[in-house]
Amino acid sequence: MIRALVLTALLGSLPAAARPPRLTLLITVDALGSDVLLRNRPRLQGALGQLLDSGAYFPYARYAYAKCRTAPGHTTLATGTNPWRHGIVDNRWVDRSTGKLVYSFVDPAHPVLEATLKPGQDASPANLMAETLADRLRMATQERGKAVAVSLKSRSAIALAGRLGQAWWFDDGVGKFVTGTWYTKEFPEWVKQLNARKIPESYFGKTWDLMRPRAEYIGEDDRSYEADSYGLGRTFPHPLTGGLKEPGLNFYKAFGVSPDSHTLLVEAAKAAIVGEALGKDAVPDLLAVSFSGTDNVFHEYGPYSWEMQDTMLRLDKALGDLISAAERAAGGRANLTIALVADHGGATAPEQWAAAGLPAQRMNPKTISEGISAMVKERFGPDVTVMMEELDVYLGGPALTSGKVDGAQVRRAVADWLLKQPHVVAAVTREELFSAPDPAGYLAPLRKGYYPERSGDVVYLLRPFQVVYFDPEGSTHGSPYSYDSQVPVVFAGKGIKPGMYMTEIDPVDVAPTLAALLEMGMPASTEGKPRAEILTGK
Questions:
Q1: Exposure on the CB side of residue 197, measured as CA atoms within 13 A
Q2: What span is annotated as the signal peptide, if there is one (predicted)?
Q3: Range of the domain at 36
Q4: 54 annotated binding-site participant
């Protein structure tokens, strides 16, 4: 009799104990490489530091594909799969039907609401080839659960919202949050009210100054390889005018570099929480917030700069406001799950590496493209064209389409030319990519990032510390090396065992882990798996 009563009590407690969180908060921090977080962690005393202490912290998650960039990174996080399945191979690729570069989420059929559609602008998830966590939540709850994504960048918000959620991003052409007609035909009241507050304009004419005394920042404030864009200058304090007399495009771009953009995103997230009543009932909701300012700072000033150190301190503070709002909406931390992750890391300015004695150099992609074009023209004539986007070489032109020239022979010639360059470590044609031997493991990340309809005819990898960038200052990302591919992942919430987990995981595990915590099926194409150790501590 006693055993029966105990069993009855246990079974009766299971639904309450197993109830999924009312609200899942997915935070992505653009360009937050593991190295950046680990170096700054001792000074993080706010919400970010507390999250690392109270959550299951994996400092060494690593993307498995080669081109670690914003659009594929966010899409991988959202789908639990790599670009070879989800199809978002880069921020841009060459459209083979037109021979022109297009953005990853371009869609002329679904323009942006209340903003001029720029040529090739990201506008909808039409190019997304895999189901996202947001899509799965909407389907699993029969569209009762809500999924909202906000970011400064359209490609980040669209990837996280998927096809069935809501995506809102800040358009620096009009200075307000917008979306595409894929998602809605008119702004809801909460977005109208958010835009009416004109939060960025309240910072016009102010400066971005250091949060802490200058003596607490490591290194030098002024370095020759830092950029001077949008009237910000290279040293603190940075004026927030964009060089304009009143708010306009350059000001909004300058504001996007400053950590004041963190505040804007938090206010947008809070408006979404209230406007969409997120977390208010037992049906689970998803709020995804992608902080883009860190990436903007990284590109302009580099990961070791005073600017990056300061933006990390301000992010640490801003996250407190966001998490507190999410907790209140969900009715407490017991009803909230939090995941924090980055879409990629980033290289330091190659001049800084070179000064320290590393074999680094800045390479203009135009130089590589011109070298390939000259070889192709000499060997196969002027009717074979060459286009490049980072690590992809696209070949076209009338000589190839007509069959006058053997395409396989041209592709092999390009790969051979690349392999002769001292800075290239691997180059392979599309025919050979999945069959060639790979003793050093260089082809594996190229394979996981390859989607035939969108990737190049020849793909290649550079040696470590080679930074391919059009700009003569600043830095970028897009390689499989740890400085670009290694990022932190943190899970926190009810039942999650705190600790530093030293296992190297793949960010494809984020979406299936959150799906498991939400007690629903995983996104359809996922390659990842739930990280069970966050519940057991083992």
A1: 13
A2: 1-18
A3: 23-92+99-349+480-534
A4: no
